[in-house]
Amino acid sequence: MAKRNPKDLDQLKLAIDSTNTKNKQHILCGDFNCPDVDLNNLSLKNASNFQDKPIQQQRVDLSIETNLTQVHDQPTRQGNILDLVFVSIPSLVKSSVSVPGISDHDIVVTDFDIKPVYSSNKPRKIYLFNKANWEKIKEECTLISGSILSLPLTVDIEEMWNLFKTKILNCIENKVPSRMFKSKNTLHWINHKIKSTL
């Protein structure tokens, strides 16, 4: 939001409203570039050299209208709190601190007392094309090609495509070995050493 475009805030509010669900934790983070907002009182600071005052007021209104609480209170650039963390359930925030970053802004590190929610994926079939009998597949494709070419000219393109697709899929099903793959909820890059530091 470096240029403070009011349309960006309008789009952000629409996005928040579209995902607003009761009893769900919403976390909104980013560089809002609004240094003239009094984060404690949800108002604008008493200053005469305001830049884009209406937009900064719009940022305040956004927090109020969406019922989001700003929880980060440490400066992130030149003594200003520009990078913010909004949450819908502030009691779940354990801490939020600024640490040196690689840009002109500090990095915001916020610790939440929440657990990840894993979505279980259904098992899916994996075709092992490296073990397929390609000679048989070529023979089958030759037969498929001949059957398509022998169709009467009155057959419309949609019907022809559906016939071709069905035959190709049947060929893959019958000529290519497969196995069922079950996805795991574990992250393979998290090893025992990393877990011990958490």
- Count the E strands: 9
CATH topology of the largest domain: Deoxyribonuclease I, Chain A
Name the assembly state: single chain
Distance between the termini: 33 Å
CATH superfamily of the largest domain: Endonuclease/exonuclease/phosphatase
Major beta sheet, strand line-up: 1-5-4
Number of helices: 5
Please sum up the structure shown.
With 198 residues, this protein is α+β, with helices and mostly antiparallel strands. 34% of the residues lie in helices and 19% in strands.
Fold blueprint:
Blueprint: H1 6-18, E1 27-31, E2 37-38, E3 43-44, H2 53-65, E4 69-70, E5 83-87, E6 93-99, E7 107-112, E8 124-127, H3 134-149, H4 157-175, E9 178-181, H5 192-197
Antiparallel strand pairs: 1-5, 2-3, 4-5, 6-7, 8-9
Helix pairs in contact: 3-4
Structure description:
- The protein folds into two domains: 6-112, Endonuclease/exonuclease/phosphatase (Deoxyribonuclease I, Chain A, 4-Layer Sandwich); 124-181, no CATH class.
- The mean pLDDT is 82.
- Helices cover 34% and strands 19% of the residues.
- The longest helix has 19 residues, at 157-175.
- Strands 1-5-4 form a three-stranded antiparallel beta sheet, with no helix packed on it. A two-stranded antiparallel sheet has the order 2-3. A two-stranded antiparallel ribbon has the order 6-7.
- With 198 residues, it is an alpha+beta fold.
